Amino acid sequence: MPTNRDTSSSFGVRRRRVLTRVVHRGWRWVQEAGSVTAEHPGRLRFRSIGDGTRLAFPQGTVFGERWIELGGHCIIAEQVTLTAGMMPGLDLGPDPILTLGDGVVLGRGSHVIADTRVTIGSDTYCGPYVYITSTNHSYDDPGQPVGKQWPRAEPVEIGPGCWLGTGAVILPGARLGRNVVVAAGAVVRGEVPDHAVVAGAPARIVRSWDETEGWQPPLRTPAPVPVPEGVTPEQLLALADLDEV
User: Fold this and answer.
1) Which of 70, 78, 164, 188 gives a 20 to 30 Å CA spacing to 103?
2) Which GO terms of the molecular function aspect are on file (predicted)?
3) What letter does residue 220 receive in the DSSP assignment?
4) Judging by beta carbons within 10 Å of its beta carbon (0-12, 13-18, 19+), is residue 184 exposed, middle or buried?
5) Which CATH number is associated with domain 44-218?
6) CA-CA-CA-CA dihedral for 179, 66, 111, 59, to nearest 10
7) What is the spatial distance between Cα 72 and Cα 94, in angstroms, rounded to a whole number?
8) pLDDT average, residue stretch 101-122
């Protein structure tokens, strides 16, 4: 015969399971309701926001929306900061300050700080905690605290099709070409040509594409086999199940 303690313990477990389901369902509802899209911008009034673009909830710090342009089908993860100008409430003139092209992905916890012009090209993907800024502290006067000295600002341009790994930092004045790969944790300044791979702090080119020789130094791993045309997602899932058998 079960004791009162067993009955109480069983009831507590069931109650905890019910509460867990309720909390998770409630949080999913909050995430859906709090996300920002062109149809449901909430309090945010961007200069433009394209179809299919979504800012996940909860958002990070966002201000200067009148000077921020978001292309179509962008994915902006949770806690991403997007700012135009040094602080809210400034008049930044008639032109956009921060522009994201179509299909840009900003990973969780990333920051894009645009005190002057910052452009991110279409189909550029950023891993989590990427930091892109057009402004850096100055330390010209050794007698003044660095944080109280007027900062320097230079435009940043990131070309289309780039990949920025987790924790990468893009400094003021950086200009990345097309399809550039930035390794995780790299700190990029200056100009990076098309089809280059950079790594380190400060970042340097560790691999580049040559029209005649291909990748130099050569890639160490074979190219992935593309999915044949006509294969459906259901068929791919079925193949994955077979691999696990």
Assistant:
1) 188
2) O-acyltransferase activity
3) S
4) middle
5) 2.160.10.10
6) -120
7) 22
8) 97
